[in-house]
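Per your request, structure below.
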């Protein structure tokens, strides 16, 4: 028997029929065939981030031993896998489809199931990327004895309600999200290539150890570079006057609160006092005194912590974009929890061009490259946000 399900907030034109609600056990069977003869040696795993993937590729080494995989389930192309491991992005564990086009084996810790009814596998794979099935799991299962594992019996798991539109609407939804995934993948590859390209250019446009000129230079520059200490290049300011007082952030507030760490923008504040008035004409570099990471900032901001330095050029005729790349190019990994600018980084010596025009040329090139990387990163984040919103609105 089927029940009528609600319809989604957004539908493609021409589709008006109500969706049905089916139980997972009505459209799929659990896969119980095991690799008893040991003929299949491709061990797969199910990652919340990467989906079904080769285990060696995911873990960088083989976790399962060949002598143990006889008891593993055989998974065919198109099969689905539930991994009960809980993570931040998969609060009840992920369900992903085998899109590798190969047979493999899966640990018996996973639940493998195969569609038996005329339900579009691509449609269903995208449904399982929503949180529309999480409520059932949380109601019927629990985290069990291990806090990183979700526990639910097979009989209960296959009672999971699945919203099922007509086959043509399933196909339209599945095709749409697959095309959107391909677009996201394309932008991810462009972004990754630009990041790799910048890393390569940083290596080639700055002298290697023991050399006084870089491998790649702009035309017209031939003089050897000179050695200077970072403390001679930068002045620093303590951040205390700009520390935010409250923590009630809101995206509608005007002033970003920054950290020099990976998160960078922690939130936005409406505090009017103690704002560092950086601008494109007067940029600063925020330097994390503990991790030694840094960010280039050319807009007004406040900071969260005193554990940083605000760096500006000592000689205003030099190029701060170049100076920022100098910081990015220093290979140093902190090994102790101490403040690093005064005690270490200010004393570091590095090679720099004596000619300010060469500084400006390199700084301009790297600044444009950073802008291109940021543009692709924002496009990627926008596409991911669009997908998340549409997943919520195009499924019941």
């Amino acid at each position: 028997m089927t029940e009528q399900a609600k319809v989604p907030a957004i539908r493609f034109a021409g589709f008006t029929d109500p969706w049905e609600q089916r139980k997972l056990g009505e459209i799929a069977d659990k896969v119980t065939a095991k690799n008893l003869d040991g003929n299949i040696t491709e061990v797969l795993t199910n990652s919340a981030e990467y989906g079904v993937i080769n285990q060696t590729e995911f873990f960088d080494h083989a976790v399962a031993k060949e002598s143990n995989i006889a008891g593993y389930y055989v998974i065919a192309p198109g099969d689905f896998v539930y991994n009960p491991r809980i993570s931040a992005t998969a609060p009840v564990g992920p369900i992903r489809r085998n899109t590798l086009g190969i047979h493999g084996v899966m640990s018996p810790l996973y639940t493998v199931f195969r569609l038996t009814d005329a339900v579009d596998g691509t449609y269903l794979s995208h449904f399982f990327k929503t949180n529309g099935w999480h409520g059932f799991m949380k109601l019927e299962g629990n985290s069990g004895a291990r806090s990183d594992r979700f526990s639910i019996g097979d009989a209960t798991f296959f009672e999971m309600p699945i919203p099922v539109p007509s086959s043509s609407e399933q196909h339209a939804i599945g095709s749409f999200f697959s095309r959107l995934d391909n677009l996201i993948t394309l932008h991810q590859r462009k972004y990754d290539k630009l990041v790799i390209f910048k890393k390569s250019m940083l290596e080639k446009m700055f002298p290697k150890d023991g050399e006084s000129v870089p491998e790649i230079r702009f035309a017209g520059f031939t003089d050897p570079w000179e050695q200077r200490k970072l403390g001679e290049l930068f002045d620093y300011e303590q951040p205390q006057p700009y520390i935010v007082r409250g923590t009630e952030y809101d995206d509608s507030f005007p002033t970003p609160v920054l950290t020099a760490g990976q998160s960078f923008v922690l939130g936005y504040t409406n505090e009017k006092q103690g704002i560092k008035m950086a601008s494109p004409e007067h940029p600063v570099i925020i330097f994390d005194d503990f991790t030694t990471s840094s960010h280039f900032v050319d807009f007004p901001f406040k900071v969260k912590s005193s554990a940083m330095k605000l760096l500006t050029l000592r000689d205003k005729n030099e190029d701060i974009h170049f100076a920022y790349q100098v910081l990015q190019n220093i290979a140093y990994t902190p090994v102790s929890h101490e403040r690093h600018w005064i005690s270490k980084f200010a004393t570091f010596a590095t090679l720099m061009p004596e000619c300010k025009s060469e500084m400006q040329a390199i700084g301009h090139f790297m600044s444009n490259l950073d802008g291109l990387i940021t543009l692709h990163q924002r496009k990627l984040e926008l596409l991911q946000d669009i997908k998340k919103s549409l997943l919520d609105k195009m499924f019941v």
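The longest strand covers residues 308-313.

Regards,
D.
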